[in-house]
Amino acid sequence: MAYQIIIADDHPLFRAALRQAVNQAVEDVAIHEVDTIAALQDAVESNSDLDLVLLDLKMPGAHGFSGLAFMRGQYPGLPVVMVSGSEELPVIRKALDYGASGFIPKSSSLPAITSAIQVVLNGEIWLPDDVKSKVAQMESAPTDFSEKLATLTPQQFRVLGMLTEGMLNKQIAYDLDVSEATVKAHITALFRKLGVRNRTQAVIAVQQLEVDNPGSSDLA
């Protein structure tokens, strides 16, 4: 049976590089490409036999590690490997703490990316050789909020992403093609699950999952 792998990255050129690595890593594979968190959710929900997700750290619709935390909570059996332009040790440590099965810097060679994919498909964790021991010695990041985030439904997560972008209920309802009453119900439910009382608290909570490395944001 063919492997089913999702490449989630909003940079077409890097999606092409990842596709090349996937094709070298496994012979029989079906590759699905997406460029937003919403499209990733749709792809996961419509494919029940997925084997791996290669997830760009900076994706439209997610804030920092929120996409990873959500994926690990909703689909715990599906390995997710973070791909990022950042190579900062704290970023790699956080990715592991939030449930990533590996971390691939975008500066990695094609053979290294190919090897990473093979290792994770075999059920192991992959990190660049030069950071393994350093990351292992680092203190784990708190994951309390990420665990709450993982309890959201896909639609609630989409609404949360829109809230953090400053969208009004009317705009959210239009984009999701639902009523404003439905949006309000989603907001009420996600506030309860996240333990917050209003939009401001929700946005501040999500910011906990931002990457503390603004200098690498263009490459992440």
Automatic annotation (TrEMBL):
Q: What is this protein called?
A: Two component LuxR family transcriptional regulator
The GO annotation for biological process reads: phosphorelay signal transduction system; regulation of DNA-templated transcription
From the UniProt annotation, give the residues forming the signal peptide.
none
Q: What UniProt keywords are attached to this protein's entry?
A: DNA-binding, Phosphoprotein
Stored InterPro entries:
CheY-like_superfamily, EvgA-like, NreC/VraR/RcsB-like_REC, Sig_transdc_resp-reg_C-effctor, Sig_transdc_resp-reg_receiver, Tscrpt_reg_LuxR_C
Source species, domain of life = Bacteria
Transmembrane helix is among the record's keywords: no
Q: Which GO terms describe its molecular function?
A: DNA binding
Domain HTH luxR-type, first and last residues per copy: 145-210
Keyword set includes ATP-binding:
no
The record, for CDD domains, names: LuxR_C_like, REC_NarL-like
**Any idea which residues bear 4-aspartylphosphate here?**
56
Task: Give any Pfam family that matches.
Answer: GerE
